[in-house]
Amino acid sequence: MHNLNQLIDRLLSAITGVAVIAMMLHVVAHALMRFFFNAPLYGTNEIVAFWWLPAVALLGIPAAHLQKEHITVTIMLENLNARTANVFRIFACAVGALISLGFAWFGLEEAMKNTQIGSTAGVTDIITWPVYYLVPLVFLMLLVLYILDIVVIARTGRSDVDPLTGETVSNEPTEAPL
């Protein structure tokens, strides 16, 4: 499972990185064309808003989950024994999985609706309906990750194992160097 997590993390990071660079190049090219040639690239604002930004934002959700980079509030769990704390962690993962399932379901319905009407970006003819399928895809991936977390906690009794390295991670905040 460690190798699968690492592969998924690298793939998500690579796709997100490509989207960020493409968005940057697109915006810079648009600005240069507008400034030097008074001919901006058609639909730049729509492409950035409807294609690049959703890709960057949505793909970061499962990547942050894989890297255990989500904010965790442990004030209640600190004072519980390990077994009871793990029950609460499994419950939290189950709630996260159910919410992810709901977002995936709603996102799929919206994507299919936008596909039927041939959704475009505002008054332009730039199609946007394919991007809507990113929502159910990302949240189904997150659902699977939550289920895997439940399995890891139930099997090992530990939630502090980094799925990428297999090492124990600290939930203590680290100080940034000045």
TrEMBL record:
Q: Which part of the chain is the Tripartite ATP-independent periplasmic transporters DctQ component domain?
A: 23-154
Q: Where in the cell is it found?
A: Cell inner membrane
Q: Which domain of life is it from?
A: Bacteria
What is the recorded name of this protein? Tripartite ATP-independent periplasmic transporters DctQ component domain-containing protein
Concerning its family, UniProt says: Belongs to the TRAP transporter small permease family.
Membrane as a keyword of this entry, yes or no, is yes
Q: Which residues cross the membrane?
A: 12-37, 49-66, 87-106, 126-148
Q: How does it sit in the membrane?
A: Multi-pass membrane protein
Lineage here is:
Bacteria, Bacillati, Actinomycetota, Actinomycetes, Micrococcales
Query: What keywords appear on the UniProt entry?
Result: Cell inner membrane, Cell membrane, Membrane, Transmembrane, Transmembrane helix, Transport
Organism name: Brevibacterium salitolerans
